[in-house]
Amino acid sequence: MYKILVMENDAQAIKIYWGIINDSGNKCFVALSNDEALDQLHKERIDIIICSLKLSYECKEFLLNEVNNIERIIPLIIITENDSIEQAVDAMKNGTFDYLVKPVNKEKLEKVLKNAITLIKENKRTKEIDENATQPSYMEGIIGKSNAMYEIAQIIKKVASNNSNIFISGESGTGKELIARYIHKMSLRNDKPFIPIDCSALPPNLLESELFGYEKGAFTGADRFKPGILEQADKGTLFLDEITELDFNLQAKLLRFIQEKHFRRIGGTKMCKVDVRIISATNRDPWDAVKQKILRKDLYYRINVISINAPALRNKREDIPMLVQYFIKKFNKAQNKNITGISNETMDYLLKYDWPGNVRELQNIVELLGVLSDKPILEIDNLPNKFFQYNNVKFDDDISNKSYHEAKEIYFKDFCKHYFQNLLRECNGNKSKASRIAGISRKSIYRMLNELDIKKTA
Q: Global pTM?
């Protein structure tokens, strides 16, 4: 609902504006003078101003100054007499949004108001994206300061307001649905439904009825009419997750809908027309899916107007510390705990791990460490064994300008640290047992642990 201020001194005109504005689901406020208008602007969060030209000509500077002093867009619509077009055009040049000629036509006023509301939505969306882009976390729920995340934020800024279909690819756990939800939130459809559907979760016959709906008696068990997801998502966004798992025949029906913008319910004869933006996603390589005839090429071209790749976590490791802090806060809120941070040693292991499950796996690990921790700091003791496998270690040191002996020392020290940490873990901290397995004395074990700054004790 938008609040619209009408500045008018003609009682009959006020009655007409009042009816049109309130019938459209918005709220009308009336001002008969400058002082009343100023009072309304201070009392209410006015979104749009409609003003007769006679009033606006006398107080044009007053109105424009007041509107410009408010830190948001307030479209000003001028109502003019037939013989005052020149003044209306002059007002337009000085910052007025639009003008209408008396007597005001209902359809024209509704159209101008619709355009003004679209402008308000677009400026609000752009402001939110610009503000978010200056923060370390560019997108709500999608944390990161890496170049990859910045590039995704810039793409969304450009495409969110249009209606083009979007295709998001990326491994499982990279946040494809979060990206889709953020696009919807930043679009002009954000007050309409966002409906996700997992194409791999249902068999083809059930998925078809879910998508297109059905008429009563269409098949055994169809004892009532049921609207499909396409109808439920009208004017909003439909997110088709794992679209490459969609039955090939059903892909053809989806393609026809995208081309024609209408469809029939199962068992129906009437065409249903809806306006839906489609965002699709897959964890497969889309071109491989096309080549293997898993995904129709013609459908792929239709849904892949704009392409976004959700990067794997191992390719944006610089985002891991920020993600960990985000998940700690989320965990504390959900579990009523007070984890304050993570040790440097634990973070070192998280940074070197390859993360096959991506961000989803990282969230699970933070939750695991939080549940098992008796301390306010997440320590290395509760990390699963997979983090201590030597083949998972990634060496970050640039050794191209080092001698053989220098490089060997770097790698050997890192190897020793991982070996003894894993050994102690397997021995539950028992150094006597660790020394027997390692084939070195207990004294040597203590010395190595001290040199390598390994603090786990028996």
A: 0.61
